[in-house]
Inverse folding.
């Protein structure tokens, strides 16, 4: 049907109110709100899409650092840089997906 879907159900749960407070997931994909132990919702998926886009274009995660603490700090401060081969359009999209404030992340629509 021409539709691509990416899924990882390793931490799936039923959450009727759509709000969570538990920390789970792969370190490189954790958004700031999870790193800072804040309540989070489905906007974490928008963040993960930004991480995936970055990895597809560069071959590695954007906030990877020596050790978990350093990676957490890079995520919290949105310490984001791009290799020169990443187009300005791709940088713009990824930057809009990887906003610290979940309400400022671009919507999928």
């Amino acid at each position: 049907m021409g539709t691509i879907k990416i899924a990882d159900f390793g931490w799936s749960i039923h959450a009727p109110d759509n709000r969570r407070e538990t920390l789970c997931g792969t370190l490189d994909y954790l958004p700031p709100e999870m790193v800072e132990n804040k309540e989070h919702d489905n906007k974490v998926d928008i963040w993960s899409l930004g991480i995936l886009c970055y990895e597809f274009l560069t071959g590695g995660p954007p906030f990877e650092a020596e050790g978990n603490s350093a990676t957490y700090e890079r995520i919290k401060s949105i310490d984001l840089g791009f290799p020169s081969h990443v187009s300005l359009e791709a940088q713009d999209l990824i930057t809009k997906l990887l906003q610290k404030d979940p309400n400022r992340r671009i919507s999928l629509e």
About this structure: Helices lie at 32-35, 43-58, 68-76, 88-97. The mean pLDDT is 86. Residues 18 and 42 are 7 Å apart (CA to CA).
